[in-house]
UniProtKB/TrEMBL annotation:
Residues 1-29, 31-64 form the 4Fe-4S ferredoxin-type domain. Pfam families: Fer4 (PF00037). It comes from Sideroxydans lithotrophicus (strain ES-1). Gene3D superfamilies: 3.30.70.20. SUPFAM superfamilies: 4Fe-4S ferredoxins. The lineage of its organism: Bacteria, Pseudomonadati, Pseudomonadota, Betaproteobacteria, Nitrosomonadales. Keywords: 4Fe-4S, Electron transport, Iron, Iron-sulfur, Metal-binding, Repeat, Transport. GO terms for cellular component: cytoplasm. GO terms for molecular function: 4 iron, 4 sulfur cluster binding; metal ion binding. This is 4Fe-4S ferredoxin iron-sulfur binding domain protein.
Amino acid sequence: MSLIITDECINCDVCEPECPNGAISQGDTIYIIDPNKCTECVGHYDTPQCVEVCPVDCIPHDPAHVETKEQLQAKYEKLMAAKA
């Protein structure tokens, strides 16, 4: 499942540069995660890097975008093929 940034976000800007898929961007009031690009770092790292660096623990799983590890891996492969 992809991740989501909650309104507890303090706009500290540490998550955006950590995302290997470019899924995180500045929204109107807080950072947002594009569920079409979020693979929870599957294919890149063992754990989601945005969650690792977030100082306020405001990046939970997005219940609106439930995906298995296999689906996340397939999304990663599709994203990498599009970059090539």
